[in-house]
Every structure is written in structure tokens, then in C-alpha cells.
Amino acid sequence: MASSGLDPEALAFVRTVAGDAVAEEIAGDASTRRFFRVRSKGHPTAVLMVHGEALAPDSPIFTNHRILSGIGAPVPAIIARNERSGLLLVEDFGDLTLQRHLLQATTGDPDRWMSVALPYYSQACDLIALMQTRAPAAIRPADFAARNALDRERFLFELGHFDKHYLRGLRGVTPTAGDEQALLAFYEEMADACDALPRVYCHRDYQCRNLMVRPGDRLGLVDFQDARMGPYTYDAASLLRDSSLDLEPTLVAEMLDRLVRSIAHPLAVGPEEFRRDFDLMALQRNIKDLGTFGYMATVRGRRDYLDYVPRTQESIRRTMTAFQRWHDPFEVFDRLVLDRQAGHR
Asked: CA of 212: how far to CAs of 110, 224, 235, 303, in Å?
């Protein structure tokens, strides 16, 4: 068997499932996990996930998989697992992300964008509704998702991560005492506002790079190990204010209408309130994204993440200028965060 970087223990684990298999390392996500495509005669390809550390039997990846598969969400089947070695062999959903598919399918013909994207985003929005309406009955008290939430403390942590790794780390900014006071007040207000929203089951990173296009134009959902309770507009904001893909405004408007019917109405939330809550969550999510991009570029050496910065800056700018409550902190953000003339370290 070709090891392609697999250690003997991982090789032995794969051989228990498919003795004649070969494994090839494939691109992973922003985590430290490694991924290998496993091929063997007479079997469909599979993906080996190497976590680099032991996994508890009640690890979030297992409990969230149970929740999602139990409600009919399209997540990869688990074929085999070795918790002690942190190894997981799962169904192969391929390499075609929704992001890649849309970029490839509409290259040179932007007029096709809406017709190509609409069926996939309709599926994606319906999947948000599925998770929010059916997951609560599948969550057990001891599950990670029941014990962890996107709450005020978490939002403050993410805003602090942005402050450290994007503002100071990537841009090299040292705020004045007045600017720092304004930023801290903004972080507190935003965390409080997001924490006050109705709380549901969230994927937590529900964007086009975690939605896979499968045969039959079906979507598959990956990278769900961090799913937990959080604001009801969180996944919608991740999907429709995606930092890694430009979305047509008409598509976003249509999908927001769809979500008003499927997730806002059951919570007795009206269309205007839903859209305000969506924009609030999108603003927090986009700021968090900048923190992630700064961290990946300066700590992990992944400068390719900086390609997403201008789009994210523009999304933040549009949201902050559209709402009176953010006009004061916008002046500071405009100078320190959104000024494109300032270089990156």
C-alpha cells in the first residue's frame, strides 16, 4: 500500500477495512487535521481523517454526526473509526465544493450565475431549516452541542481574535487610547446584541467551501464537528454573506425571503426583524472572518486567505453604514480596518 505520508498505525487501520488500498493526501481545511483519499479494488473511495490526537467516544465529531445523520442531513457516513489513534474513515463526498462548482460553471458566462446557483442555495437554505427544526429533538444533554453555544463569551473571544490577529497582527495597527476604548465598547455591544437573538442548532461554518456538490446536483455537508447552539440567523449569515464568494443580490434577497418563511415565522419573527438580525449576525461573522484570515496568514503562513479580505471589508462597510447604531464605531473601523491603502504585513 502506498503510504503517502501515513504512519504505520494509520496504514494498519485502513488495511482492516481495505487491505489492497492505496492512500493519497488531499487538501484539507483550515484546521490541523490531515486528509487522505483511500482507493481499493471493489470498493468506493473513502476519506481518511487523521486528527493527530485521540478522540473521545463522545467527541463533537461523533455526537454532531449522530444528530445530523439522525435528522436526514446529507453528511458522510462513518465507515470505520479508531478513537485512540484519532482516525476516522468516512464516505467520500469528492472535491467539488459549491464555491468551486459555481466559479467553474459560470466562467465566461456571468449571465448563467443565477440559474446555476439558485437550486443549490435553495437546498442550502432548506437544510438550515431542517437543522433548526429537527435537531433539538435529537440532541442529548451530554452532547457537545447541548453544552456549548455561540454566546456572549464566545463572540467576545472571536472579536478579540480579530483584534489580535487581523488588526494588530496582519495590519500592524496599534490603536490610540481613544480608538481602543471605542473598539472595546463596540465589541461589547455587538456581543450583547448577538447573544440576545433566539438560539438554535447551528453548523457554525455554513459556507460554500463546506457544501459539496454531489452526483444528481445534491449538496453534501462537511466540517460539522463544531456545530452547537447559536443565534438563529448565524448559518444564514455565513451562507449569504460568504467571505469566499460573491453572491448576486437578487439571489440573496430571494433566499432571505425563503428563510423568513422557514425559520423566522416559526419563531414568530417578522420579516423586518429577521433582516435586522441577519445583518447583525453577518457583521459579527464577517469581522470574525477577518480574524481568521489574519491568523491563517500570519501564524499558519497561508497568505492565500488574504484573497478574501477585500470582499469581507466591503461587506462590513455596507452593513455598518446602513445602520445608525454602527455609525460611531464605523469611523474607527474605516480608518483602522477597512482602509485598503494600508498594507498587510
From this structure: 21, 13, 16, 24
